[in-house]
Write a structure and sequence with these properties.
four-stranded antiparallel β-sheet
Length: 94
């Protein structure tokens, strides 16, 4: 079974990029420790745009991540910081 690849593009509200970045770094560290996580890399495009490149071993691991307490807490803490969020589940083209 192929791994699950996710790209998440998260845009902060104007002037809140640094606050959002701190929240993203917190969730990154804990997510990297989750069972089934292969990769959870954080990138920054500009002051207010962040990109997660994730790879999960299974759909079950991804589902568990989305329900993990630290992820749900991050979503609550960042709700007022985020302007827009686009999440893409990707499959490799061969």
């Amino acid at each position: 079974m192929a791994s699950i690849n996710i790209t998440a593009v998260i845009k902060a509200k104007e002037g809140l990029g640094n606050q959002l970045k701190e929240e993203l770094k917190k969730v990154q560290v804990l997510s990297q420790q989750e069972e089934g996580n292969i990769k959870y890399d954080l990138f920054q495009s500009n002051e207010n745009t962040f990109i997660f490149q994730e790879e999960w071993a299974t759909k079950e691991a991804l589902k568990n991540h989305a329900q993990a307490p630290h992820f749900l807490e991050y979503r609550d803490r960042s709700a007022d910081l985020v302007l827009d969020r686009d999440v893409y589940m990707l499959r490799k083209v061969e």
